[in-house]
Amino acid sequence: MSILSDKMSVTSDAQAPSNLSSWVDPTMDSTRGTETPKDPEKGYIALLGWSVNAIKAAQNFDRRYVVVAPNWAADFCEANKIPFIPWDFLRLNDRSMEIAQVLKDKGVDVAIPLFEETVEWSGAINSVLMDKPHMYGQSILFRDKALMKRRAQLGGIRVGIFEEAHEKEDIVRFMKRVNQTLLKLDGDPDDPIHVKAFDKAGCLGHRMIRKIEEIDQIPAEEYPLLMESHLDGWEFAVEAWIHDGKIKFLNISEYVTLGYSVFVPATAELESWRNAITKQIEKLIKTFDIQFGLIHPEYFVTADGEMYFGEIAYRPPGFKAFELIERAYGFSAYQASMLVFDPKSTKQEVDDFFPKEVVDAKGYAGCFGVYPRRRVVSKLEMPKETTEHPYFESHELIAPTEEVVPDRSAFGTHWGLVFFFGDDPIKMRDLLKAQEELDFYV
């Protein structure tokens, strides 16, 4: 018998052993005995990756579920009676398809990716569970930024200029070629380019190169990279839930500053583009042959009203966008994903789940990613301008563990999020922008 099957945890009423008691989360429905009864007629879902909020949403939903995550989650799952299968998503070998067979044998209907590195795994697993071999190839398109842009071009979707870089000289040539195309003369400032990791999420590995000399700062281990021309425009993101190839709910997330702040729903100014954005998403669905699931594409609107495709992800977005959507609208974005992924969901069930975009929002929810602005810090000190603002709700910042702030690599990784909620999108936008001038770590 497979080692995975042997270690499969089963939800039970037994008390967690004393050595696991420190892992017990009293807010979990599974530990409180209040978990929503599961309907065996509906889909059985595998959650690929680790998200406590996704698990809580599953416990409060009527679908059976199992968590597939690295072995370090085992004690927490056992202590909180969470059905669990250990799996190392970083390891690719001749046993990689075993997880698909284990899930199929257990009667699982679909695997849902919770973070970027599990998107390929979900494609491979679902190609087995649903007997649709093309789903693995489709997942590769969602992971490889160069392939996804080529597929978008084939579908008639506007993208900027892009190429792959395998070494420094490739970036030098690309930057010179882009600026030659833009008719830059000797002495003119170069137009910037962007370099990104092929398969990482969000801003990880993303750099804006303004001068040739900056290329030397890219470590050798970050190659190969995707290179893109810079697009001057309004960047925004979309979260679209799709069922039977149709959009069931489309949220527009407004970036205040990329990598720093976002809020939902968007301002009336950005929402005025909804019809055009919807048409672009429908073109994306057709081009990538998306029949179900949650997609998170990013776009640019340029000054002349043209819309350019940036990239697409097939998993929950970063910056707690799911939590922001739930705060604004009241429905669980994680449950929404389980619903549209589940092949046993009916059209009526899906239609009844979602509210009406924008008009049904209870307010505007935003968050700000904090980066220390000082080179040396000793403590966390929340600014009064933040905590005393009526829109402030909570934060997840922790005290610094060391005094010297590491140099930011590329766009860097924030130290935690600060959350806001209010009734005016312009106030929200200005508030999030103002956070950039405040010190949270002193």
Quick overview:
By secondary structure, this protein is of the alpha+beta class. The chain is built from 16 helices and 16 strands.
Rounded to the nearest angstrom, the distance between the terminal CA atoms is 55 Å
Contiguous low-pLDDT stretches (5 residues minimum) are 1-15
Task: List the total number of helices.
Answer: 16
Structural class: alpha+beta
What is the strand tally? 16
Can you give the helix content as a percent range?
25-40%
Radius of gyration based on Cα positions? 23 Å
Topology:
Layout: H1 3-6, H2 29-32, E1 44-48, H3 52-59, E2 64-69, H4 74-79, E3 84-86, H5 98-105, E4 110-113, H6 119-129, H7 134-143, H8 145-154, E5 162-165, H9 168-181, E6 193-197, E7 207-209, E8 225-229, E9 233-243, E10 246-257, E11 261-264, H10 268-271, H11 274-287, E12 292-302, E13 307-313, H12 321-329, H13 333-341, H14 347-353, E14 364-369, H15 384-387, E15 392-395, E16 417-422, H16 425-434
Parallel strand pairs: 1-2, 1-4, 2-3
Antiparallel strand pairs: 5-8, 6-7, 6-8, 9-10, 9-12, 10-11, 11-14, 12-13, 14-16, 15-16
Helix pairs in contact: 5-6, 6-7, 7-8
Describe the protein.
α5 crosses α6 and α7 packs across α8. The chain has 442 residues and is of the alpha+beta class. The protein has helices spanning 3-6, 29-32, 52-59, 74-79, 98-105, 119-129, 134-143, 145-154, 168-181, 268-271, 274-287, 321-329, 333-341, 347-353, 384-387, 425-434, and strands spanning 44-48, 64-69, 84-86, 110-113, 162-165, 193-197, 207-209, 225-229, 233-243, 246-257, 261-264, 292-302, 307-313, 364-369, 392-395, 417-422. Residues 1-15 have low confidence and may be disordered.
